[in-house]
Write a structure and sequence with these properties.
Elements lengths: L2 H20 L4 H4 L10 H20 L1 H12 L5 H5 L6 H19 L7 E4 L1 E5 H23 L9 H10 L1 H6 L11 E5 L5 E4 L7 E5 H8 L11 E3 L1 H9 L28
Parallel strand pairs: 3-5
Antiparallel strand pairs: 1-2, 3-4, 5-6
Helix pairs in contact: 1-6, 1-7, 3-4, 3-6, 3-7, 7-8, 8-10
Length: about 270
């Protein structure tokens, strides 16, 4: 199995895991507000549906994808109305998301490791492209889980998200018009299976240690670092996690301390 095939398989598994949460929701739960301002649970799935479809088009027909980008941004005020599929009933939205995922899976099966794929901004290597889709599914899935009170079981698929979070340290600054501070930061993360995942050089003063899931929640801006069990040593590490943004788009800030702390979640608490 190639690297791209492995990420594609993990993406399908991550999508299936979120499907298992939403498939049994009531009509009222689909209308619940999520931590994304103005977005319901249905909007989160609508967002994933649109961009999974866009990803399939980007692989299958790059010129058509470029046309869709121009159309989407021609009127920024209509982006939500174009991308959230609010015209669909809940059953139709779920069916459309599933069909779109199948289409993306078929398109992803045609990728090889050295293929580059057009996207919103610079083109991306095939592995990074599919990793970004996995990250999006997991992060928006967290919004859904928080809204409906579901506690997800972490999996080692999070290694993809953790690695993306690490390599986007520079992006987190550049996206804000800032220079990345000189110096390295090391990650020493414990995956859900208990394996140790390390990124960055040994022997540096700035280190982030702790559960991989918590690091992923911070770099996708779903939790403030103070609401996690992460140990952050050094000013470079602390400054990075205050600005971390593993996803594309305009610079945004994550939640303030306590805003997205989940009742009953013991991460970040003192034993």
């Amino acid at each position: 199995m190639t690297d791209v095939q492995r990420v594609a398989a993990d993406l399908r598994d991550e999508q299936d895991a979120l499907d298992a949460i939403v498939a049994g929701l009531t009509a009222e739960q689909w209308r619940l507000a999520t931590p994304s301002p103005g977005w319901t649970v249905a909007d989160q799935i609508g967002h994933l549906t649109y961009y999974d479809g866009a990803a399939a088009t980007a692989i299958e027909d790059p010129p058509a994808f470029k046309e869709s980008v121009a159309e989407l941004f021609a009127d920024p005020g209509r982006i939500d109305s174009l991308t959230l599929h609010r015209h669909l009933s809940t059953p139709d939205l779920l069916d459309t998301w599933r069909a779109t995922r199948r289409r993306l899976a078929r398109a992803a099966a045609t990728l090889d490791d050295d293929r580059r794929v057009e996207w919103y901004g610079p083109s991306m290597g095939a592995k990074s492209f599919l990793t970004a889709r996995l990250m999006e599914c997991w992060a928006h899935g967290q919004d859904v889980a928080d809204a409906v009170g579901a506690r997800r079981q972490g999996t080692d698929r999070l290694r993809h998200v953790a690695q993306l979070g690490f390599i986007t340290r520079g992006w987190s600054y550049a996206n804000r018009g800032l220079e990345r501070p000189e110096g390295d930061v090391r990650l020493e993360l414990t995956g859900p299976s208990g394996d140790l995942w390390s990124f960055g050089p040994d022997g540096v003063a700035d280190v982030v240690r702790g559960p991989a899931e918590d690091f992923c929640l911070v770099v996708t801006q779903r939790r403030h670092v103070d609401d996690t069990a992460l140990e952050v040593a050094g000013p470079l590490a602390r400054d990075w996690l205050a600005r971390a943004q593993a996803f594309a788009g305009p610079a945004t800030d994550g939640p303030a301390p306590g805003v997205r702390a989940v009742p009953g979640d013991t991460r970040g608490s003192t034993p």
